[in-house]
């Protein structure tokens, strides 16, 4: 499609070439967004869309969160249109300001972590030991769930540390992060290895069959999600923790506990510290009075 003139034609190429490069778990939603955008803008010429059209679309949409995500996809499609030579410039980039949902601010306190790690395991191995090792490793490195569940010791454990290319952006930046060995990191890894139900598995975190929890075909980790939910139910029932937290909140805790913003950015393998500061630095800012 070398000479796309209509928004619908641009979206068709985007669906064919760009969507397949995104995380598998997002494909279905992206294709729904493309369908909705085609219905609204498909017959318009690429140059016709103006900021007012974007605001009107969001105002008419019953689901504001979905509408904002659809517009984000449309904006990215226009960025690709410039790259593909359909347009000289993006017609609404930097001109539309849609109110977004405030970032989550749940900060997991140290005492809550201690409660989780004190939970008794009914077996020498098993889900509780695995989740506790996972928590320790996550708090030290800030790795995302996908990167942690894909860890393969034989491939990624180097002499100097644990090497990863963040899966979410591996095809974009190709940048590698190495978490240097410390006594605490070695201990967390040892706990994870000891808790595995299958010692010969190539995965640091594996199922009872020694397989990776992450299904690359669906982009889901349903077995892991179920295990995490069962663990949290026990935490809320058997410890002093009263507010549920997510795995992503643990990643944010690692970012919040880092010494400074740059350390947090590097720890989380972000390319831009603005997202680190906005979403992952959740501790209150402490300010000394003038006098």
From TrEMBL:
Alphabetical GO biological process terms: DNA integration; DNA recombination
Protein's recorded name: Integrase
Domain Core-binding (CB): 1-82
Listed PANTHER family: PROPHAGE INTEGRASE (PTHR30629), PROPHAGE INTEGRASE INTS-RELATED (PTHR30629:SF2)
Origin superkingdom: Bacteria
Entry's Gene Ontology molecular function annotations: DNA binding
Transcription as UniProt keyword: no
InterPro entries xref list: CB (IPR044068), DNA_brk_join_enz (IPR011010), Integrase-like_cat_sf (IPR013762), Integrase_recombinase_N (IPR010998), Phage_Integrase (IPR050808)
Sequence similarity: Belongs to the 'phage' integrase family.
Keywords, alphabetical: DNA integration, DNA recombination, DNA-binding
